[in-house]
Amino acid sequence: MKQLIYRSQPFGFDSAMLAGILSAARRNNRANGITGALICRQDMYIQLVEGPDEAIDALYQRILADDRHTEVKLAMSAEVEERMVPEWDMLDDTNPSMTFSKDEVEDGAIDRASPEALQALFRRIAEKARAAGAAT
Ligand SMILES: Cc1cc2nc3c(=O)[nH]c(=O)nc-3n(C[C@H](O)[C@H](O)[C@H](O)COP(=O)(O)O)c2cc1C
């Protein structure tokens, strides 16, 4: 199974666009055996997706071609045995508190972060959502 993390810059970010992305993501991911989480803020997306190799490769190609964001950059790709967020078709963190500040994003901190640091970020987000009983 493949696990992939990328970052990008939203293009024309608003709540309607985000709702559209999340509803398509959840519908498709459920059908394709993909789970994941999306950190969304006006100045950044960071997304974790995990599932069968071919499904993840196909999804990443669609994501690269999506004009609702730019500067898509792969931050981590790994073969894993276990999912990090098995309960969520696409968990959303729309009020990210445990991540990079706007200044850090502007300064390129996401690109300097290690794959382990990014995985740890998603692990914390999943733990927070589990504690809050977030819908799956
Ligand atoms: C930040 C971002 C995250 C996305 N995440 C997913 C995703 O997890 N799964 C998915 O199928 N599409 C996702 N998409 C949408 C795809 O780029 C593409 O529009 C969609 O898969 C096409 O599916 P449709 O033909 O069913 O609309 C995402 C798009 C953006 C901009």
Offer a quick outline of the entry.
This protein has helices spanning 15-32, 53-65, 102-106, 109-112, 115-132, and strands at residues 2-10, 35-41, 44-51, 69-79, 91-93. The protein is an alpha+beta fold. It is globular.
Question: In words, what does this structure look like?
Answer:
- By secondary structure, the chain is of the alpha+beta class.
- It has five helices and five strands; from the N terminus they run βαββαββααα.
- The protein has a single domain, classed as Alpha-Beta Plaits (2-Layer Sandwich).
- Helices cover 43% and strands 28% of the residues.
- Strands 4-1-3-2-5 form a five-stranded mixed sheet, sandwiched between helices.
- It binds flavin mononucleotide (FMN).
- Flavin mononucleotide is lined by residues 21, 24-25, 28-29, 36, 38, 45, 47, 49, 59, 62-63, 66, 68-69, 90.
Which outline best applies?
A: globular
What ranges have pLDDT less than 50 throughout 5 or more consecutive residues? none
Small molecules held by this entry: flavin mononucleotide
- How far is the N terminus from the C terminus? 21 Å
- CATH architecture assignment name: 2-Layer Sandwich
**SSE string, helix = H, strand = E?**
EHEEHEEHHH
- The DSSP helix count reads 5
The average pLDDT is 94
Any idea how many domains? 1
State the strand order across the main sheet. 4-1-3-2-5
Q: Give the DSSP E fraction (strand runs of 2 or more residues).
A: 25-35%
Could you name the CATH topology? Alpha-Beta Plaits
Characterize the largest beta sheet: strand count, sense, and whether it forms a barrel: 5 strands, mixed
